Structure formats: structure tokens, C-alpha cells
Amino acid sequence: MSITIVVGASSGIGQAAAIRAAEGGSGVIVTYNANQDGALETVARIQEAGGTAVALPLDVGDSATFPAFRAAVERALAETWGARTVTGLVNNAGYGGGTLFADTTEKQLDDFYRVIFKGPYLVTQTLLPLIEDGGSIVNTASSSAGTAGLSEGYSAYGSMKGAVIVLTRYLAKELGARGIRVNSVSPGPTNTPFAGGAFEAYPEMTAQLVERTALGRLGRPDDAGSAIAFLLSDGGRWVTAQNIEVTGGFNL
After folding, report:
1. Hey, which family's this protein in (predicted)?
2. Is the pLDDT of residue 202 over 90?
3. Architecture of domain 3-241
């Protein structure tokens, strides 16, 4: 039985990944923080398509709650699927925002660290005993951690996403003995709620991004969601320690 936890699945890429995983036959545990309605929408869409899903609250920025979250996962597994383990984990929760390096405050830096790097690190550590041997972990990184085409104002955010990519390789190395594959996906500019309507508010910026993208459009949540689902599936069985850019050829 395939069961996947998608952390941060109330909208955007996480929601798309959860739906795609369910389409591939996986049960899904979706998590949310502030957007419970979005998480319930994800569950409803999966159920309407004949799948099985449950929603659980999780604040990735509050590591003190992780043991209780693990207990909630164990209850959901037993009550919904009669299971004790999962086969997949997607670390997708986070938030964005840009501030020039000279203006970035210590609090902003700490918040990015706490949510984007520390949270996924410790959530994965907490849930590791529940992940089956031969399972798959996928971390959502970002093209902002790349080596070219960087935009000013993302030194803190991009640095934490870069740390996620490095962590991915170390986890692949350490968990390989259990047959657990670990990869990251780095989306480029993607029109999601995460962007806060910026693409609609600044059409000139959108046009510039599209012009820099080889495939000629902005990314959509399902572009990255489908790539995540592939890495979770048997089709990705021989892929590990990789960072897959899902950018449509951004800055190619």
C-alpha cells in the first residue's frame, strides 16, 4: 500500500503534488497551517476522484509540535488505512518574500531558517521511523538557489533553499542503505497563491519572466506537482540525490 505525506498541501504545488500522488494510487495525508479550507479542498478533490486522503494541521515553524504531529499521523494511518508506515514524504511547506541583503533583519533571516530549512530537517527526522524501506522523500527547493539568473533580494530565501538541496544529497547518502530515495525539485517562476497575486499585479514583470523562459510561459502548480509525483513513484526508482529543475528552461 502506497501512502504519502505532503507537507504544505493546501494550495499551489503541494496541492498539485497531493492530487497527482493520489491519481497514481497513493493514499495521502495533507498538512496545512493557516489554510484549513484549502487542505479540505485538496482532500475533497482526491476523494471525488476515488482516492483516500485526510488533512492534519502542522506548523513547520514550530518544532515543539512535531512529536504530537507524528502521533496524529500514526492515528490517521491506523484509522484510515489500517497501516503503520508511509511510503512517501514531500516537504513543501514554506513562504517567500524578498528583501535586499543590506535591509534583511535578523528576524527575517531566522524566520526563513526556521520554516524553510530547520522545519523540513526536523520534520523528516521525526517521521523517519514511519517511512518504509524503499520509500521516497522529495524536498521542494527553488531556482533561486541556482548559479545563474539570480534576482536581487532573495539572498536569505535562496540560501535556505540551497541548504535544502545540500541536505537532500546527505539524506540520499545516509538513507540509501534502507533503499530510501531522496531528491529535490526546484521550480522556476510559478503562478501559485504563494506569489500573492504578484504576477497579475505586475504584468510587465510577468512578461519579462516569460521572455526569459524557453518554453514561453510561467510555470503552473501542476508542472512541479507532476515532477514530484514522478519522483515518488516506481518510475523514479533509480533516481536519488538529484535536484530536478522544473523551470521550463528559465534563464536557459
Report:
1. Belongs to the short-chain dehydrogenases/reductases (SDR) family.
2. no
3. 3-Layer(aba) Sandwich (3.40)
**d(C-alpha 186, C-alpha 247), whole Å:** 8
Active site residue 157: yes
Under 8 Å CB-to-CB from 59, ≥6 apart: which residues?
Answer: 33, 65
Q: Which residues contact 202 (CB under 8 A, 6 or more apart)?
A: none
- 98 grid coordinates: 524578498
Q: State the Cα–Cα distance between residues 27 and 142, nearest whole angstrom.
A: 26
Rounded CA-CA distance 238/122 in Å is 26
Q: What is the DSSP string of 176-205?
A: GGGT-EEEEEEE-SB-SGGGTTHHHH-HHH
DSSP for 130-155, written as a single string: GEEEEEEEEEE--GGGSSSS--TT-H
| Site of grid cell 494541521 | 57
Active site residue: 95, 157, 170, 202, which one? 157
What pTM was estimated for this model as a whole?
Answer: 0.96
Please state the φ and ψ torsions of residue 216, each to the nearest 5 degrees: 75, 25
Integer CA distances (angstroms), 92 to 10, 35, 233, in order: 10, 14, 17
3-state DSSP call for residue 134?
Answer: strand
